[in-house]
Specification:
single chain, 445 residues, alpha+beta, Alpha-Beta Plaits, Chitinase A, domain 3, Trigger factor, domain 2, 5-stranded antiparallel β-sheet, 4-stranded antiparallel β-sheet, 21% strand
Length: 445
């Protein structure tokens, strides 16, 4: 075997590899001998089939396996002998091969860059924190009581408004013909809830109990019943009763409805949940600052192959958002501008990922099996009734397990950096904490 490095350009390395016919034949013979000991053919005792017969019957497949093994072994050797830390799997291009001859191929790999992290103790970060005061707990408690409330008849003579519930009888027609599922009796409809097709509820705002209204609407073009999609419908509606929402009383009984023994315990639970939620947002804000500062302080070449993989992932998601109408301002940009913008984002993500990996390596940050197991359990809980299929999927897909491990590793590295950095807490309002920093940047521009 002859391995020659033919070019070095940036992080890319190219090798010319020649595997002699003799080396290939040795691998073929070894595999044929393995088969001879195990294969069973009519007319021969187990383990006594002549190698010539094995070669005649299985020679083509054995040769294919031998060539694949030779390429795999030689490429690993080329990388190991030179102590290369490769970014992605090598690219192999066969240059020349004829049966009973040498195999010549070209291998191209990209190596990881040399990274020297900056002084983490010199990082200065500001962490916004929002205290959970009694007023915030009481406000959350009021909202919670609203979800456990009931409705009661409106006694005053007033029209229906959004948030009210109208009890209605209705019957609909399309092209003057009644259709199944377009009628109902004593149906409680909360105005503004979006239960019915667009435009329906709006035309009942202002109605009073005992009033009859004709409601004309059009089914959406993507309506699930194809025979109704895009068609106009007329509904004859009788408003029988007007009801208003009444929140549940904030007392111990409300707490018991949530499985807690008292109102004080419910308040304590709400405070703990809000504290955890605010803490999570605070961490996201300081993590964003941290990544911005790391990106500003480090500039090193990144493997183009890794950038391409990241860019393709971003680009696919963007195309899905454009198709679904959720791309925002991006929908009005040219493809060239979008590609330039998102390729820069891909470069940043790859660079930060490599930097965090190097910091974690030097700090000996490890992800335990218990941490991976907990992440797997949390993932399975997202699919009630399909937990077994989720576990089987991850068991059969090592890359999927790695996708669970990666964010855990990143969070632990971020924690390690925050322990080294100078982090100053700043008390802010809940509104400021929850506001997207990008909104502030746009406002200041």
């Amino acid at each position: 075997m002859n391995i020659t490095e033919t070019s070095t350009e940036g992080l890319a390395r190219t090798f010319k590899v020649v595997i002699t016919a003799q080396e290939i034949e040795e691998k073929v013979k070894g595999r044929l001998e393995e088969l001879r000991r195990t294969v069973q053919l009519p007319g021969f005792r187990p383990g006594k089939v002549p190698v010539a017969v094995i070669r005649q019957r299985y020679g083509a497949s054995v040769l294919s396996e031998a060539l694949e093994e030779a390429v795999s072994d030689s490429s690993r050797q080329a990388i190991a002998d030179r102590g290369l830390r490769v970014a992605l799997q090598p690219k192999i291009a066969v240059d020349k091969y004829e049966e009973n001859g040498d195999l010549e191929y070209t291998m191209t790999v990209e190596v990881l860059p040399d990274i020297e992290p900056g002084d983490l103790t010199g990082l200065e970060l500001e962490k916004p924190v929002a205290p959970v005061d009694d007023a915030a707990v009481d406000e959350a408690l009021t909202r919670l009581a609203g979800t456990r409330g009931n409705t009661e008849p409106v006694t005053e003579d007033r029209p229906a408004a959004n948030g009210d519930t109208v009890v209605i009888d209705f019957a609909g027609t399309v092209d003057g013909e009644a259709r199944p599922g377009m009628d109902g009796k004593d149906f409680p409809l909360e105005l503004g809830s979006g239960q019915f097709i667009p435009g329906y509820e709006e035309q009942l705002v202002g109605a009073k109990a005992g009033e009859h209204r004709s409601v004309t609407v059009s089914f959406p073009a993507d309506y699930h019943a194809a025979e109704l999609a895009g068609k106009e419908a007329v509904f004859e509606v009788d408003v029988k009763e007007l009801r208003t929402s009444v929140p549940a009383t904030v007392d111990d009984e409300l707490a018991k409805g949530f499985g807690l023994e008292s109102l004080d315990k419910l308040k304590e639970t709400i405070r703990e949940k809000m504290t955890a939620d605010y803490g999570g947002v605070s961490r996201l804000r300081v993590k964003r600052q941290l990544l911005d500062k790391l990106a500003e302080a480090h500039d090193f070449p990144v493997p183009e192959g890794m950038v391409e993989v990241e860019f393709e992932s971003i680009w696919r998601r963007l195309q899905d958002e454009i198709k679904s109408g959720n791309a925002g301002e991006d929908a009005n940009k040219s493809e060239d501008d979008l590609k330039a913008e998102y390729r820069a984002i891909a470069v940043r993500r790859v660079r930060l990922g490599l930097l965090l990996a190097e910091i974690g390596r030097r700090a000996n940050v490890q992800v335990t099996q218990d941490e991976v197991n907990r992440a797997l359990i949390n993932e399975a809980r997202r699919w009630p009734g399909q937990e077994r299929q989720v576990f089987d999927f991850f068991k059969a897909n090592p890359q999927a397990i790695e996708n669970l491990r990666a964010p855990i590793f990143e969070d632990k590295v971020v924690d390690h950096i925050l322990e080294q950095a100078k982090v100053t807490e700043r008390t802010v309002s809940v509104e400021e904490l929850m506001r997207d920093p990008e909104d502030d940047e746009v406002a200041a521009a």
